[in-house]
TrEMBL record:
<keyword id="KW-0520">NAD</keyword>
<dbReference type="Pfam" id="PF03446">
    <property type="entry name" value="NAD_binding_2"/>
</dbReference>
<feature type="active site">
    <location>
        <position position="174"/>
    </location>
</feature>
<dbReference type="InterPro" id="IPR029154">
    <property type="entry name" value="HIBADH-like_NADP-bd"/>
</dbReference>
<dbReference type="GO" id="GO:0016491">
    <property type="term" value="F:oxidoreductase activity"/>
</dbReference>
<protein>
    <submittedName>
        <fullName>NAD(P)-dependent oxidoreductase</fullName>
    </submittedName>
</protein>
<dbReference type="InterPro" id="IPR015815">
    <property type="entry name" value="HIBADH-related"/>
</dbReference>
<dbReference type="Pfam" id="PF14833">
    <property type="entry name" value="NAD_binding_11"/>
</dbReference>
<dbReference type="InterPro" id="IPR006115">
    <property type="entry name" value="6PGDH_NADP-bd"/>
</dbReference>
<dbReference type="InterPro" id="IPR036291">
    <property type="entry name" value="NAD(P)-bd_dom_sf"/>
</dbReference>
<dbReference type="InterPro" id="IPR008927">
    <property type="entry name" value="6-PGluconate_DH-like_C_sf"/>
</dbReference>
<feature type="domain" description="6-phosphogluconate dehydrogenase NADP-binding">
    <location>
        <begin position="4"/>
        <end position="165"/>
    </location>
</feature>
<dbReference type="GO" id="GO:0050661">
    <property type="term" value="F:NADP binding"/>
</dbReference>
<keyword id="KW-0560">Oxidoreductase</keyword>
<dbReference type="InterPro" id="IPR013328">
    <property type="entry name" value="6PGD_dom2"/>
</dbReference>
<feature type="domain" description="3-hydroxyisobutyrate dehydrogenase-like NAD-binding">
    <location>
        <begin position="168"/>
        <end position="285"/>
    </location>
</feature>
<dbReference type="GO" id="GO:0051287">
    <property type="term" value="F:NAD binding"/>
</dbReference>
Length: 301
């Protein structure tokens, strides 16, 4: 039976996710890809996918997939003037792949359920490369029934599609994952300049922390970029800061002590106060380089 699927948000993640949904799907499906930015839509094309800036194209969709930058945008898109929630088919399922705060995800999900929709908060991990390859990790919060119904669809975009628990559990899991990642980057940002200030060669040091026991996805991604002075290739740290805020909100509400997370947050804040919010997370190294009067760069960097 034919199914109408709408994807809202065609950025670095949204468009490759749309491509995998289309290429691995049923030919009887109709897939509509929507973005409010005409510049982002320009030039996008895929057989079987309708690409448009018109929100009205979501009308009658049985599944709405959201790939949006933050929770406020999600709320506006769903419930604001000309909100998509009023255009969906009765009983439609909303899958929110955006990364937003746990509490906001629960509030949005309950509002959608009150309108008769099924909901999964389903943030992803794997970066644009994972979105392109269809190898994302998808962390889902919602009822077991909704997860079971949507799992085959999500397996088109991810190799790990996991039910983490009730509504909000996907976002909570993503927060945990991101905070651990963020702590890794914060540690690199403050320790690498110290090591260079003590006389260690940046390039040789980079080889150790990307192959030795301290290696992590964070070091393997960011250290090569720090060594060549490239700080504009990843997600902006000003936007990524919301993960630490979300963790702090959860910890404050429940009285959980998070001393290491608090320390990493200070490192982020130092970079933000230094004006690096539009650069990627590797730019957290820059204030520490300035303080110590060194550069963590390869000779050609």
């Amino acid at each position: 039976m034919s199914r109408r699927i709408a994807v809202m948000g065609l950025g670095q993640m949204g468009w490759p996710i749309t491509l995998n949904l289309a290429r691995k799907g049923d030919r009887t499906e109709t897939i509509v890809a929507i973005d409010a930015d005409p510049g982002r839509v320009a030039g996008l094309a895929e057989p079987g996918v309708v690409v448009t800036t018109e929100r009205a194209a979501v009308a009658g969709a049985e599944v709405l997939v959201l790939c949006l930058p933050d929770g406020d945008v999600v709320e506006s898109v769903l419930f604001g003037p000309d909100g998509l929630g009023s255009r969906l088919a009765p009983g439609a399922t909303v899958i929110d792949l955006s990364t937003i705060a746990h509490g906001q995800a629960v509030r949005i999900g309950r509002a959608l359920e009150a309108h008769g929709f099924a909901v999964l908060d389903a943030p992803v991990s794997g970066a644009p490369a994972g979105a392109e390859a269809g190898t994302l990790t998808v962390m889902c919060g919602g009822t077991p029934e909704t997860f079971a119904a949507m799992k085959p669809l999500l397996e088109r975009i991810g190799t790990e599609v996991l039910h983490m628990g009730p509504l909000g559990s996907g976002q909570l899991t993503k927060t945990v994952n991101n905070v651990i990642y963020d702590i890794n980057i914060a540690a690199l940002a403050e320790v690498l300049p110290m090591a260079v200030a003590m006389g260690l060669d940046p390039e040789q040091l980079g080889r150790v922390v990307t192959t030795g026991t301290s290696r992590s996805y964070a070091s393997q991604y960011f250290v090569p970029r720090i060594l060549r002075g490239a700080f504009d290739e990843g997600y902006p740290l000003g936007k990524a800061y919301k993960d630490l805020v979300s963790a702090a909100e959860v910890a404050m509400a429940r009285g959980f002590p998070l001393p290491v997370t608090a320390a990493a947050t200070t490192t982020y804040q130092t970079a933000l106060r230094a004006g690096h919010g539009d650069r990627d997370k590797g730019a957290m190294v820059l204030p520490f380089e300035t303080m110590l009067g060194v550069k963590v760069r390869a000779p050609s960097g």
